[in-house]
Fold this sequence. Notes:
- With 269 residues, the chain is mostly helical.
- Helix content is 68%, strand content 5%.
- The chain has one domain (2-29, 42-212, 219-267).
Amino acid sequence: xxxxxxxxxxxxxxxxxxxxxxxxxxxxxxxxxxxxxxxxxxxxxxxxxxxxxxxxxxxxxxxxxxxxxxxxxxxxxxxxxxxxxxxxxxxxxxxxxxxxxxxxxxxxxxxxxxxxxxxxxxxxxxxxxxxxxxxxxxxxxxxxxxxxxxxxxxxxxxxxxxxxxxxxxxxxxxxxxxxxxxxxxxxxxxxxxxxxxxxxxxxxxxxxxxxxxxxxxxxxxxxxxxxxxxxxxxxxxxxxxxxxxxxxxxxxxxxxxxxxxxxxxxxxx
Length: 269
């Protein structure tokens, strides 16, 4: 029992250390955006992404066995990354786009190393945020299906905010012209629906590993996923504003405020 308590305290210390490091990396990226630091290599964003992934996984291990968390993250990275690679090669299912050299190195000269990690951050933190929103209904029979659907919707919103940052500001990828005139900041709308569909597919595979099968006392709500999710939206919004993408700023502000309100309301239940 004492060993278990020491392990829990150790994980708590590690969790809060990662929170501090993540906040510091976030501040570093903002300093780069505002020209306080002149860093052209892109390593602050890489560090921020890596810390977001590690922090997300450590936060989950406070609720689930570490092997379950690693299994779920691996499946998300492999399936999400694989479908992103397929999309770059064939244009299916996201629409025609090309990864640039801004996200080097690439896996098998096709997939940027960061894309599997982006999927992990987007899906796991969307799911954690969805759990907060749906907390009042966690004992209903349809809760599991609602959780999957809301997670897919939040991942779509994450992609909606992320794409202008990635394609128009950082130029991580470039969209090719398409016949349909309706786009979002240059990206075809099918891109975002595809993020949702792929997320549902991934959730079918990983949800069994993300269910806590051990009986335990009621836990207090975990706000770490919400902070990472909203922090990402805030970062994308700031970058969009600094580059004059005011429509994106307005949409991302509405998304962030609405999700914050519903998540806090659910957490207080």
